[in-house]
Amino acid sequence: MMNKKNPHYEISRLQRKIPLLLEGQINESTSSANLQIIKEKTQEIWRQEAFWIKRGNASRYLYDLRQFLSWATQFQEDNADATS
User: Fold this and answer.
1) Best label site of 15, 27, 38, 57, fewest CB within 10 Å?
2) Global confidence as pTM
3) Residue 74 included in any domain
């Protein structure tokens, strides 16, 4: 059983949100520029995971992951407003 105070528990929980969040942003009307931004940001968060977890600093990766999710949520809201 995972301890909720363990950063690995929170990382796992937040990582499950990424595909759902990205699915809401990517569709046939998504511009190629936005697709490129999403791709770059997503690749960066996976690089951050590899870097921080390898160094045993899950708390730092958790910080980056939260920042990524915050960015993705704001990006989605900004682009939903632009297409409305």
Assistant:
1) 27
2) 0.85
3) yes
